[in-house]
Design brief:
The complex is a heterodimer of chains A (194) and B (458).
Chain A (H helix, E strand, L loop, with lengths): L2 H12 L20 H10 L3 E5 L5 H8 L6 E3 L25 E5 L2 E3 L5 E4 H4 L4 H4 L2 E7 L3 E2 L2 H5 L9 E5 L4 E2 L7 E2 L6 E7 L1
Parallel strand pairs in A: 1-11, 2-3, 3-6, 4-7, 6-11
Antiparallel strand pairs in A: 4-5, 5-8, 9-10
Chain B lengths: L2 H14 L2 H21 L6 H17 L1 H14 L3 E5 L2 H14 L4 E4 L3 H5 L2 H7 L3 E4 L2 H8 L16 H12 L7 H18 L2 E4 L3 E3 L4 E6 L3 H5 L5 E7 L3 E2 L5 H13 L6 E5 L13 E7 L3 H6 L14 H5 L1 H6 L10 H12 L1 H4 L11 H5 L6 H14 L5 H14 L2 H6 L2 H16 L13 H9 L1
Parallel strand pairs in B: 1-10, 2-3, 2-4, 4-7, 5-8, 7-10
Antiparallel strand pairs in B: 5-6, 6-9
Helix pairs in contact in B: 2-12, 16-19
Classes of the chains: A alpha/beta (194), B alpha/beta (458).
InterPro entries (chain B): 4Fe4S_Fe-S-bd, 4Fe4S_Fe_S_CS, FTHF_cligase-like_sf, Helical_ferredxn, LUD_dom, LutB/LldF, NagB/RpiA_transferase-like
GO molecular function (chain B): 4 iron, 4 sulfur cluster binding; metal ion binding
Pfam families (chain B): Fer4_8 (PF13183), LUD_dom (PF02589)
Chain lengths: 194, 458
């Protein structure tokens, strides 16, 4: 027998009988998520949130708040006119020197500040992780109350890679002291639009 | 006594008296406790959330064979390859075969207990393949030549001064760097490794049957970078990490984050459901998922201990355990330490060699209290002890002692036969050693209650 058959046979031999389990109601909500609550959580995670009404506000805000940013990648040209073009060419290594990536988010979760991103909108999987700083543009209307509400919406069978990002990269591996900027993006900015 | 047991006792004795160690651990666990208290606030009904999590894992194990086949089918559909490994050696051989086929010399690896369980790094080193740990805590431990001290916080026993000294010694940095500066050093060292490595290896926090996905959670970004540039991504995962549906993550991500580190949710929560697809510009060209048994079906067979397979490796029972806090993670001499390690290791690696761990508990029940998936950890420790007796793993001397104790205790006549002083002598002679050097033996009163009663009635 192959290892596959061995293991499956061992499981079949040993696994429990089916039992009736109590039904526990779902935690799903119908109301929209609260942008103010979302903002508060993102800020406690070490991110910044700016509420904007038009994409044209992004560029001045970036100029004002980032002093060390010269190479900017923007998924949509209207986010940041004059951003680098042709950045998609290559195996991802070409992005190693990117200072700031501005990407769209599909939806945000008010209870924990997580934002759902898939490769369909970011084009290059590694972009949000290799960039030194990350900015996510998220419509105000796409904020949901909880993770349960988010999962009811997110996965499509064609998606190969998806990620919830909540705040900038961080670690507390040395004596539990929090350090922002471990291996991924050192900072996270969210532009809430609408 | 088995040599593992005597070495465990010796190391424990030493660590329990090490005040510096205790201070570091208490400091770190204190910070963890504060964070967890705040993290739990996000749950409107924590008890129901935990009960639900337990039910989901229960359901996952009820149908584990079907879920594994479903997972395999879905991952394969998108070009992923599934490999089955019955034991550690098979898992290692499969990984080596992939490395050889890819002519791999350099691997980046993100934190994974399954790879610790099979001792992957030392195995690859023997075959001249460098395997670099990329999680900061694991990186520190690898520099120091030590295994992880804790499931979630691998370098928990080191103070920031210890880490600064270690970096100075191994990497030539100044000896007084702060945690911020040390993190930056690791960030820069490892960025080059991500770009150069041929293969990236990760574990999986969960495998998801309905989408054929591998779910990985992390704060640092190292797992994502480890799977970005290398052309091959290998996942090594135990078969029990199964969740039936992607929707289950809505509960398990927050639960694992809160109980693991006190966060609402971890920074990066990724789902991989295959290698690079047509039209995609980056990501690994090949993805292998190795589904490992390595003793897990033994646990499944044991109807009581079965629920220990619900474990999501959050580490909260370690942090809650008075024994762990005093003897530390390394004294156990096992990959999985603390209460859950003491429950599963005898099943995974043999009763005879590891049953002593099931006795390293006061059965205070704090582990059960803090378990997010409500595993009855302390009762399973008791269950292991019971099983050890039934399967004859206890010594003849112990059996004799208990037999004598039972005979005497059940007989009024024998209890009255000798005075308190004789009973005290008897205790000293037969039980002093088991009772331990650090606590006083109970003392029998010179007159028993029975005698006092009789005297009063005269």
């Amino acid at each position: 027998m192959s290892s596959r058959e061995q293991i499956l046979a061992a499981i079949k031999r040993n696994q429990p009988e089916q039992q009736e389990l109590p039904v526990l109601d779902s935690f799903r909500h119908t109301e929209a998520g609260d942008p103010a609550a979302f903002r508060k959580v993102v800020e406690t995670l070490g991110g910044q949130v700016y509420e904007i009404t038009s994409y044209t506000e992004i560029q001045p805000l970036v100029a004002e708040h980032y002093t060390d940013v010269t190479r900017v990648v923007s998924i949509r040209p209207e986010y940041f006119p004059g951003a680098i073009t042709g950045w998609q060419e290559g195996d991802g290594r070409q992005l190693e020197q990117v200072d700031l990536a501005i990407i769209p988010g599909q939806l945000g979760v008010a209870e924990n500040g997580a934002i759902w991103i898939t490769e369909q909108e970011i084009e290059v999987r590694v972009l949000p992780f290799i960039t030194q700083h990350l900015a996510i543009v998220l419509p105000r209307t796409e904020i949901l109350p909880t993770m349960h509400d988010a999962y009811a919406r997110i996965w499509s069978p064609s998606a190969g890679f998806g990620v919830f990002i909540a705040g900038p990269s961080k670690t507390a591996d040395i004596e539990q002291s929090l350090v922002l900027g471990a291996h991924g993006a050192k900072s996270l900015t969210v532009f809430l639009i609408g | 006594m088995h040599q593992n047991a005597s070495s465990f006792l010796e190391k424990s004795e030493k660590k329990a008296g090490d005040l510096g160690h205790r201070q570091t651990i208490n400091f770190n666990i204190g910070k963890y406790n504060t964070a967890v208290k705040a993290g739990k606030q996000q749950f409107a009904d924590l008890t129901t959330a935990r009960e639900r999590a337990k039910n989901i894992k229960w359901r996952a194990l009820d149908n584990l064979d079907k879920h594994l086949e479903e997972f395999e089918q879905n991952l394969t559909k998108r070009g992923g390859k599934v490999i089955w490994a019955e034991n550690a050696q098979q898992a290692l051989d499969e990984i080596l075969a992939i490395c050889k086929a890819k002519q791999c010399k350099s691997i980046v690896k993100s934190k994974s207990m399954a790879t610790e369980e099979v001792h992957l790094n030392s195995f690859l080193a023997k075959h001249d393949i460098e395997c670099v740990e990329t999680d900061l805590g694991e990186y520190i431990q690898q520099l120091d030549g030590e295994p992880p001290y804790h499931i979630v916080t691998p370098a928990m026993h080191k103070s920031k001064e210890d880490v600064a000294r270690l970096f100075a010694e191994k990497l030539g940095t100044p000896p007084d760097l702060t945690p911020q500066q040390l993190t930056l050093v690791a960030r820069e060292k490892l960025r080059q490794k991500y770009l150069d490595a041929e293969i990236g290896i990760t574990g999986a926090n969960f495998i998801i049957a309905d989408i054929g996905g591998v779910a990985v959670t992390e704060n640092e970004g190292n797992a994502r970078l480890s799977t970005a540039f290398p052309k091959t991504h290998i996942v090594l995962v135990g078969i029990e990490k199964m969740l039936p549906s992607i929707n289950d993550l809505a509960l398990f991500w927050p639960l694992l984050a809160t109980y693991g580190t006190g966060q609402n949710v971890t920074v990066y929560n990724s789902i991989f459901s295959g290698p690079r697809q047509e039209g995609e510009t980056d990501g690994p060209e090949e993805m292998y998922v190795i589904l490992m048994d390595n003793g897990r079906t033994n646990i499944l067979m044991d109807t009581e201990a079965r629920e220990s397979l619900y474990c999501i490796r959050c580490g909260s029972c370690l942090n809650a355990c008075p024994v762990y806090k005093n003897i530390g993670g390394h004294s156990y001499g096992t990959t999985y330490s603390g209460p859950i390690g003491s429950v599963i290791t005898p099943h995974l690696r043999g009763m005879e060699s590891y049953i002593h761990l099931s006795y390293a508990s006061s059965l205070c029940g704090n582990c059960t209290e803090v378990c997010p998936v409500r595993i009855n950890i302390h009762e399973l420790l008791l269950h292991n002890r019971h099983k050890a007796v039934e399967e004859n793993y206890t010594s003849g001397g112990e059996k004799m002692s208990w037999f004598g104790w039972k005979q005497a205790s059940l007989s009024r006549r024998m209890m009255n036969l000798v005075s308190g002083n004789v009973k005290n002598l008897f205790m000293k002679k037969f039980f002093a050693k088991a009772w331990g050097d650090d606590r006083e033996l109970p003392v029998f009163a010179s007159k028993s209650f029975n005698q006092l009663w009789k005297e009063r009635r005269k």
